[in-house]
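Data availability (excerpt). The following record was deposited with the supplementary files.
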Amino acid sequence: MSNTTTSKLTQIFRATRLLLHIISGLVQSAFYPHVSQPVQKRMAQKWSVGLLKILGIRLRFSGTLPEAKNQPIMLIANHISWLDVYSLNAVCPARFVAKSEIRDWPLLGWLSRNVGTLFIERAKRRDTLRINQDIGNALTLGDWVAVFPEGKTGDGTILQHFHASLLQSAVAVEALLYPIAIRYYDASGEISKAAVYVSISMLESLRQIVKQPWIDAELIFSDPINSNGKNRRELARSTEQAIANALSLPIPHKVPGKSSYPPTE
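Predicted structure:
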């Protein structure tokens, strides 16, 4: 982690702005389910951009961005932090698949529920069938759905094995998959340790982030992969390879992290 940190006054200012922004999001989320899909996307994008700005997250992206098509679109990304959700939403708003425990988070849990997050019971393998049906329904309705196939967060220096179970929905609806590589850098240009959400609480993660002068978030979009004619394991390996190439990382090794999905495959 960079030795350079922000002043206590700056940290308090950021934390205060963050609390007000979350309250604003909660108010907006009450109306979110009742507006049109394009309006929902604009709301999610604007709120996410605001959140990143408050936290000092400087976002950049490159590559082939998703475009609205007649074909369903699924976003596939590696997983480092809860910041991943808002970094992706700031560029291409989507519905996310998340562990059910997030529903119980103070404030952010309520916000996640109201904006249509798809929750999975990670301890129940049979819940995979139900969540795949929910993902398929969302994709069919025109929502973009984002999935983190690693199933848990890592430190950004190693890519973890991509599980195929949640990609069955993409096969069922013949979705177009966009692999997205995510990486965070600190003020010294090194891989950010402050952005990593592994073996710490949400509050401690926030403390780490607001101490940083800034964090650079990078999204690298690879060419889309058509699921037509492929099975879920082929899609898992193809997206895994695309993201590994974008990050110049080897194909995976196991590292501990925050589990999000049951590691079934």
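Summary of structural features: The mean pLDDT is 89.
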